[in-house]
Amino acid sequence: MIKKSFLILISLFLSSQIFAATMSSRVRQVPKQIQDGIFVNPKDNIVPLVKFLAGTSGDTSSRVKILHDWICDNIAYDCDVFTEEGAGAQGYETVLKKRKAVCVGYANLMAVMCQLANIDSEIVYGWSKGFNYPGYLRPESDHAWNAIKVAGKWKLIDVTWDAGFVERRTFIKRYTTQWYNLTPEQFIYSHLPEEKEWQLLGEKQIRTPERFENEPYIPGVFFEYGLSFGKDAPSYTNLIHGETGFDFSSSKNGVSLSAGIYGESDGADLSRASYFENAGRNKRFLFDVPDKKVYTVRVGARINGVTSNPYYFSRADFEQKVLAKAQELLAEKKITKNEADLFVKSYYLVAENDRYYYAEDLFDNGRNMANSKILKLLERNTSRYENVLSFEVRAADDYAGFGADGARFPQLYLGYQTAQNIKLVSPLQGTLQKGSEQHFAVSTSAYSKLAFVLGESDFVFLTKNPKTGAFELDYIVPGDIDVLHLFASKDGSQFASLISWDICD
Predict the structure, then answer these.
(1) 263, 288 in Cβ contact below 8 A?
(2) Which DSSP helix (H) or strand (E) runs through 302?
(3) What are the Cα distances from residue 107, in Å, to 4, 150, 160?
(4) Pick from 238, 232, 191: which is nearest to 212 by CA?
(5) In the 3-class helix/strand/coil scheme, how is 393-423 assigned residue by residue?
(6) Per-residue pLDDT of the chain (505 residues; tens, 9 = 90+)
(7) What value does the CA radius of gyration of the chain take, rounded to a whole number of Å?
(8) Rounded to 10 degrees, what is the CA torsion of 101, 77, 20, 357?
(9) CA 457 to CA 450: how far, in whole Å?
(10) How would DSSP label each residue in 208-276?
(11) The 386-395 sheet, strands edge to edge
């Protein structure tokens, strides 16, 4: 019997995948008679389907991946659970006939296909973090996934979350392998089994419900970026007494992080409530709260130089700007009529969400190439930050917050945010007093010159310290300015905004 919690909780992780997950081409090579028949008469076609996809010999890992990929490519999340009393039957035959399922239906289908391929598998029931998680475990478990034995060892996979995500009441197909490649030590940050043996962890690593609730939600993409915490890691909810920080590191080159604090403040500028540094593979975040309200810290990551197409446009943007500019490209003969048609067909409107979503098809190379080409010409490709971590923060009982007046940290501009190796050493306070002497120090290998610009041609340069490698300057804050801007240059001629401090009396 399906628990009611399975019917109302959609635990799909929202992510616009930066890392290109490769789907097995074999999922689109299934003979037409079997592929068509599986959705009409599953009982008679499930055996030949599994035999074609995975057979009963060969590398177990590859066979499991093919089954995982076929389900992701063919089964959508059943969003009707929002409007119906229950999700209905979730056996593999019903799932295949509807081509829709909730999590337990995905898990049932995966288990049946593994069994027919002579692969040991189990359905694991438990709790999950992610979309709709309230911050605590409900009385009944709310999710289901699979444990599969590969090369003599059990591994955990979540086909539901790898198939796509839900926005409001619409399933958006978006294939990933985030929840296929995780180790048990990584999987436990988002999935807690009812039976602790399915955590697949050593005794010292076993999560109690209390420990699971206390830990932050860490999605699979966090580990795809090669990220790990320093000595201290944030909790799901963090009580702070003032400026607080966490250290990260990345095992991969070219990873930049950014963070922000979000919520409804009593007038404070939250863009100045957090600070971060990208010192090579070492990263650090500092943040504070202005008052006693609960705030959310969101951490984003990206690979420098890697662009990714947006997976949706707002309705107004797409209809009023994107389509019009695409027609201009056609008129200018920068694209062909076929490319323009393919681009338009690449997006579909979800009126309830007021968005046009990209209709993912990993195997439609012609359409995918046309879409990327036009987005690049429209300058819509972005090297955006992908959400890799979020947690809550609030002031402890004995702390009132830093207040709404003044800036907690300096303003960090694009020149700082996009630098691969940079660290503001001092000063870290966002507001400086006129006439005060400050030691300015910025460690970076991304720029050759740093300078304050006080007028059109009044440059005050920082000097690189040969011992520390940082650009430094002992400087008295001018009394005739309201903002002190620090600029940086790679070639010594063109300068970009780097950091600024508010100046007060």
Answers:
(1) no
(2) strand 295-303
(3) 16, 17, 8
(4) 191
(5) EEECCCCCCCCCCCCCCCEECHHHHCCCEEE
(6) 334 334 334 344 344 455 567 999 999 999 999 999 999 999 999 999 999 999 866 789 999 999 999 999 999 999 887 555 566 789 999 999 999 999 999 999 999 999 999 999 999 999 999 777 888 999 999 999 999 999 999 999 999 999 999 998 899 999 999 999 999 999 999 999 999 999 999 999 999 999 999 999 999 999 999 999 988 889 999 999 999 999 999 898 888 888 899 999 988 889 899 998 888 788 889 999 999 999 999 999 988 877 788 889 999 999 999 999 999 999 999 999 999 999 999 999 999 999 999 999 999 999 999 999 999 999 987 777 889 999 999 999 999 999 988 789 999 998 998 887 899 999 999 999 999 999 999 999 999 999 998 877 789 999 999 998 999 999 999 998 999 999 999 998 899 999 999 999 8
(7) 26
(8) 160
(9) 14
(10) PHHHHHHSPB--HHHHHTTEEE-S----SEEEESS-EEEEEEESSTTEEEEEEEES--SS--GGGSEEE
(11) 237-240, 386-395, 295-303, 255-262
Q: Parallel, antiparallel, or unpaired for β 355-358 and 347-350?
A: antiparallel
CA distance 295 to 353: 25
Determine the Cα–Cα distance for residues 369 and 488; give it in Å rounded to an integer: 37
CA–CA dist 463, 469 (Å, integer): 10
Find out whether 425 and 442 touch, Cβ atoms under 8 Å.
Answer: yes
Token pair, residue 399, equals 């702390």
Instruction: Produce one character per residue of 181-219: b if its CB has 16 or more CB atoms within 10 Å, e if not.
Output: bbebebbbbbbbbeeeebbbbeeeeebeeeebbebbbbb
User: What gap in Å lies between CA 75 and CA 108, rounded to an integer?
Assistant: 12
In which residue are the tokens 């200018």 written?
Answer: 332
Q: Residue 337, class by beta-carbon neighbours within 10 Å (0-12 exposed, 13-18 middle, 19+ buried)?
A: exposed
Amino acid identity for residue 72 in this structure: C
C-alpha to C-alpha distances, 422 to 101, 441, 453, 456, nearest whole angstrom: 47, 11, 20, 26
Q: Which residues pair with 173 in a beta bridge?
A: 164
- What three-state secondary structure class fits 156? strand
